[in-house]
Amino acid sequence: MNLRMDTDKDTGVAILTLDRPEKLNAIDLATAEQLASAWQALRFDDTVRAVVVTGTGDRAFCTGLDRNAASTVPQPNSPYSIDDPLLTIGPKSNDLWKPVIAAVNGMACGGAFYLLGESEFIVADPSATFFDPHTTYGMVSAFESILMAQRMPYGETARMALMGTTERMSARRAYEVGLVSELTEPGEAVTAAVRRAETIAGYPPEAVQGTVRACWAAQEAARAHALAYAPHLVSLGNLPTERQAELFTARRPVREARLR
């Protein structure tokens, strides 16, 4: 299993942990299926009233779709559709309205935004960094940018998406622009997220889930409208998979700038 779930029946909090540290918690097809199954199972587990999602190790929360998995997903020959294995890895995509808090340590990039974008809020370790590598490797950042545009001002979203691997947004900067709601002491992100989850889990679940649904509804119309464009933007703008792989394999160390 590439995913662990630990549930505390006394507090009503579950911790969902991506567990591929050797791959920087990148999501392969098996992990994508496990995430979808986990969110669906949590819908029916009344002992769980709040969830924390995180990644194993201190190097990365998640580095998006595993490149080996990406090369095995066949794509339809149409600008109006695309098969994206990450579209169902988030809680809202699986009709889960229990509150989800993301605890981020290390890198969070690319496909990680599918999880961050469907969390209620983000708690981050000072080591956390956020970036979007798509344009560097000849790919359109569509779904990721749409999700991040719900979290940050337009200029911050556009800069992250367009600068690719050259820049990484620091945890401090992410806090300043509103992507992160809480910046913790080193090593305390999961602990802090669990504390917040325990507080929320102590409230009546009907009221909590209704509030989550109301907050999501405030963004949903614009998000749904934007997502309708995403498949053909990706289909039209992505380089062929073979060329993406060449760029990825030939990548050179970049003089990385970290936004303070």
TrEMBL record:
- Which stretches are transmembrane? none
A GO molecular-function descriptor: catalytic activity
Question: Which biological processes are named by the entry's GO terms?
Answer: fatty acid beta-oxidation
**Pfam families on file:** ECH_1 (PF00378)
| Protein name per UniProt | Enoyl-CoA hydratase
- In its UniProt entry, the species of origin is given as Streptomyces capitiformicae
The beginning of the lineage is: Bacteria, Bacillati, Actinomycetota, Actinomycetes, Kitasatosporales
Which gene name does the record give? paaG
